[in-house]
Automatic annotation (TrEMBL):
Protein name: NmrA-like domain-containing protein
InterPro entries reported for this sequence: NAD(P)-bd_dom_sf, NmrA-like, NmrA-like_oxidored
Residue span(s) of domain NmrA-like: 5-257
Keyword DNA repair applies: no
Keywords of this entry: NADP, Oxidoreductase
Gene3D superfamilies reported in the protein's UniProt record: NAD(P)-binding Rossmann-like Domain
Superkingdom in the source lineage: Eukaryota
Amino acid sequence: MASQTHSVFVTGVTGNIGGAVAKLLREQHGWDVKSTVRDPDSPGAKALAALGVQLLPGSWDDIPSLVDAMSGIDKLFVCTATHVEDPGLEQVHAVNIVRAAQSVGSIKQVVICTSVGVFSHQEGDKAQHSTFFDKVMTAKRVGERAVTEDSPWKWTILRPAIFMTNFLAPQVDYFSPGFRASGVWRSTMTSETPLALVLPEDIAKIAVTVFGQDEKYHGRVLGVAGDVLTVEDALTQLGDKTKRSYTPYYMSDDEIEEQKESLCFTVAEKSLRHMADNIDLDELRSMADLTSFKGFLEKQEELVKLAYSG
Ligand SMILES: NC(=O)c1ccc[n+]([C@@H]2O[C@H](COP(=O)([O-])OP(=O)(O)OC[C@H]3O[C@@H](n4cnc5c(N)ncnc54)[C@H](OP(=O)(O)O)[C@@H]3O)[C@@H](O)[C@H]2O)c1
């Protein structure tokens, strides 16, 4: 990345993706990193402050707090949170962040991170999608549009795939209900449709590459993954690491339809089958050193074994 330093506002710094972006920009590139936090005394906020991340109290519901905290920045990373109880909140937050950014006037580049699901989301087609997926992806689309339409800055959209960490506890019980107990991984996938998986730290690496080359990546929409592999291969790799054997269960269309109201995309959303269609691993690997699923299982061996030991 170019050695020039910049001042960047990173949203969601206490979260997985925002935290990884803030850490990488501070620790490895020495950029000024700013953000707002809702609780400055949280362990996550304190750890970031110790790295030199400038934190002001604020929230995405409070535009003036964002405008204050964005003062003097030239780059912005937007990654909002999904609110299970009210998915529409995410688009309100994204629009608030962009409004604040527009009023600041000094921003030259914005990177927004949403989800690989946006690629296959047929907007307004409620028959195609599970109810929750449709709401979440609609919110993410609104955020993308807020960043890209009539924008005064260079922009790039990152659409990350499923986190590899969803296979760790406790997340695994939300993303793959019943899997740890039964050893059966039930999903909307088929034996042919590959999973696209990524580590939040690798999303951060791609974001940092994009921040370093604003002209090159302006206007690009990148699906982001560190690995693409069949369900069977993923389960075999997990089984090798945990010394158990796991079985894929490929749901029928009728079974998927019955799950339409589930909050778990893995068993409710058929378009997951297309998640890998927009992942160009060669390009992504030219941008950053990325972690394969096998590499993740190695790296997190202790947590992986802990999750599947019961
Ligand atoms: N899990 C996956 O497989 C996957 C795959 C692709 C995309 N995604 C998407 O990635 C996004 C980010 O995920 P993540 O894991 O990094 O999220 P996360 O760890 O849950 O972090 C969420 C962040 O949002 C902040 N936040 C929430 N509401 C806020 C508000 N009203 N004002 C200010 N800050 C607020 C939280 O701050 P506090 O510390 O104050 O709560 C936290 O920093 C999500 O939208 C998700 O849909 C996830």
